[in-house]
Amino acid sequence: MEINNYIDNIIEKGTLAVIDDALNNLQSEWSILHKSGYIHIHNLESYSISYNNLILSLVDNFPYHIFHTYSKTRKIISIFEYIKDITNKILHEISDGVSFANFDDDIATILTRLNITNLKQEQELISECVCEFLIWCNENTIINKTYDITLNIGLSINPIGQNIAKTLLTETLNNNFGIKKTNIVFKVKNGINKNKEDANYNIYRLANKATLSTSSPYYLLCDTEFNSQIEPKEISIVNKTMKISDNIFTKKSSIGRGNLIYTTINMPRIAFEIEEYNDKLDIENKINAFKAKWQNMVESVKDISINGYDKLVAKLPKNLPNTSAHNLWKELFYENEDIESILKHGTIAIGFVGFYDAIEILTKKDMYKDNDTLKIALDLIKFMKELVDQLSKEYIINFVLIPTENNEISKRFFHLDNQIFKNKLSNKKYYKNDFNSKTEKNIENKLLKESIFYKYLNAGFITSIEIEKYNINKIENIQSIIDKATSNDIDLLEFISSPKNIDNKLDENDIVDDFQKTDNEEDNINSIFK
């Protein structure tokens, strides 16, 4: 980040000093793993001090009593100012970002409980407040750092909630204020918005139209096998791709939970070392050697994570004053109470970068172009997931597995590895996004291939669809792909494009053919499932 003034300079230097101090206070073998690029400990400035992100439990703990005496106008304005205030306070206390699990429905519920139900009279003011909130989210920067704010929408059948969703999507479509950074996630659910007869179908089409223009929103597909096990309003995305749902202590839910500690493992580093020192092994034994090294690395990450977790949960509520004062987690904070009973509902993420590259290094083949290699990849991800699940059972902590979607970490690992294995990486610039089949010409094959990994990634992964590549130029194209993704149990979907090529004034009622398909590849992906 470019340093523009002396305050930013002081904060930047202070942050780096805190990170250095955190590394120096870790056990030396852990610090070396991070510095040398075997792993990356995220947000070292908050390690053992605070947590990473939070999906706000907003409705149940809202201070309704404060607002009851206000006029309708003051209620509406004050509610949005209150939400800005608590968001800002929480972001001062954590390291990554916050999410509203049902932004449209939460605001509608709060307004309704405060006796604001006449949408015709209040619609314009509510819409203006939503616009201002969206601008505020986009511009929100704290101590020289931009935080992720995620707004999940689409399920509210309350007229106020419907209006809020329409306003957000319209502003996204028009992009009047250069809105880029706020993550908007549209929850697609049969019976609510997916079909023509559903109450929110027109809002769904508006979301599709915005996607064609701006690549936003993302889509959380609530009817997939995994997501359908959770009440749709209970599931949410935070920080663009992280899905917090599994909980060994209670039912699956996202609300009032966050990720506590996040560490990412460099998979190509392990693969390169096996190739370097065990090059005469056959593929099966190379994979077995990789599994053994991966397990050893996970043991170190587990120790680092539990060390940070133990220190964090030993704190008192006063060490997290805003979190505890506003009771935005699943359970309530009480003064001087040990906070483990609350933060235990959080997750500890074990991330990884370069899965695709590691498979290619070990097998010399592209896993998406060779079925035998794809079977090897599937066997490896199952092994990785089983290992993480075993940690959860053994330590009674919500360990989760996630492919890390962070280009800076991918580039950091690549840069460090390139210094060691220069002759191996000359044609690359960074490690490939782990499960996106970017070279796949047929979209149905792409969805089918990527879908086989989803069940093992319980903390989320996003499938990316390139708009120009697949000739997506109509709302119906978007809907058709979402239908196919849902049937393939792909949980989260994004469409990416060069906006200059998209007409954002498409007529929503255009009748079009199904999206254009390219020729099928010869390989038969269905053999993977036998």
Task: Give a quick set of tags describing it.
single chain, 530 residues, alpha/beta, Anaerobic Ribonucleotide-triphosphate Reductase Large Chain, seven-stranded mixed β-sheet
Helix content: 40-55%
Decide which structural class fits the backbone: alpha/beta
Average of per-residue pLDDT values: 87
Fill in the CATH topology of one domain. Anaerobic Ribonucleotide-triphosphate Reductase Large Chain
Name of the level-1 CATH class of one domain? Alpha Beta
From the alpha carbons, calculate the radius of gyration and give it in angstroms: 23 Å
CATH architecture of one domain: Alpha-Beta Barrel
Query: How widely separated are the two ends?
Result: 49 Å
In order across it, which strands form the biggest sheet?
2-3-6-7-8-15-14
Could you give the count of β-strands?
15
Q: Strand share of the residues?
A: 5-15%
Taking the sheet with the most strands, its summary is: 7 strands, mixed
What's the shape?
Answer: globular
Stretches where pLDDT is under 50 for at least 5 consecutive residues are 499-530
Total of helices: 17
